[in-house]
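To the team - coenzyme A complex, inputs and output below.
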Amino acid sequence: MPHAPASPVLRRATADDLRAITTTDGRGFGVHYSDTDIEDFRPLFDPDRYLLAQDPADGAKQDGPILGVTGSFPFEVTLPGGATLPAPGVTWVTVAVTHRRRGILRALMTEQHRGFVADGSAVSLLTASEGAIYGRFGYGITTQHRAVEITRRRATFRPGAPDPGGVREIDGNEARLLFPDIHRRWTALVPGALSRSEAWWDNHMLDRESRRGGGTALFHLVHADGYASYRIEHGERTCRVVELVSVTAEAHAALWRVLLALDLVETVAVWSHPLDDPLGYLLADPRQVRTTRLRDGMWARVLDVPAALSARRYRTEVDVVLDVHDPFLDLGGRFRLRGGPDGAECERVAAGGPSVAMDIAGLGPLLFGGERAATLARGGLLESDDPAALRGVDAAFLADRLPQHGTEF
Ligand SMILES: CC(C)(COP(=O)(O)OP(=O)(O)OC[C@H]1O[C@@H](n2cnc3c(N)ncnc32)[C@H](O)[C@@H]1OP(=O)(O)O)[C@@H](O)C(=O)NCCC(=O)NCCS
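Output:
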């Protein structure tokens, strides 16, 4: 095994690095990317947003081996109350298997996050391959995925459940035209929801055979305020819902009426069903929406406490000093937050006020309203000598609906 550099040389990627990045990343994740995969990804690849680690012995030569990669996508993310923040979504994080646990990831993350701060980002986001990696960098779990399976024949609608109709079957071309606007309206409602660029939509709708897992090409359903895409696995007699987006309760009920009417299907499976989805309440037997897996989805890290906290709305009036501990980027301190349903302000203060002390990794989950302050306190990420201050933060940070990010990255 080669010796690791004492500290790696970091450089920004160029367009020519894409193939080498996919090779390093493919090794890290155990994937062989095909030429088609690489060309499909190219429109989403902004080399300026990628940092590469190399051995100083190679003098950061363009063609020297890449020992580590980190990149980011430029998302907009929705906060409780509907405001959005530009938010880099960290991605393609890999270190060569020959050079692990020698500080290359830490060097990449430090440089990348300094860049996010210099660019004025208030929050950064990621999805994690393993749960133990990112807490140390100030990230906390912000959304969760629930996989569900429904035995279609047993999932009858309760008497009186809405049956609004209005769903059409459409092809991929029409879906590409109609879905982005519905998705945009959905992102405005849901905390944690991520924007999709046109290039992202093109990629999302590609539906390459190599990614179908043995299922059919996608079928698409559309309603004025929602849509669903699914594929059928004939061997398993399963309908796999790849995406279901509804802006209104009517669209939700109408789309589910159609999905549960697919006569030749035994099981309808959804890989990411919102934790607060109301489908169970439409059915005679709510237990038919069986959760088969629950796992973390998106993680968030606050980079600018005043900017992030003043951009969201709060469920109840709150006036509190948050004492934030940030060992990774040293961006913590004491911040006074005054907020409520109509707006908020937050500023750095020297001292005073009823205070709640917390690790920065607890602030992302709180910011998007997906975790209760009381739960974080029981987990030791947040504490206060003042029970009223803790109760106030607990009540104020809850959002009207649970956060969902909606777009994998
Ligand atoms: C995860 C990965 C990027 C770590 O790279 P690395 O260069 O070995 O990490 P570092 O040596 O810089 O470690 C930084 C810190 O994270 C810890 N760490 C790194 N990987 C970890 C893991 N898988 N589980 C727990 N802790 C981990 C290290 O112990 C170190 O802790 P410390 O600095 O607080 O003492 C690398 O193992 C990898 O490429 N894995 C496969 C691909 C992958 O999962 N990528 C992440 C995608 S979300």
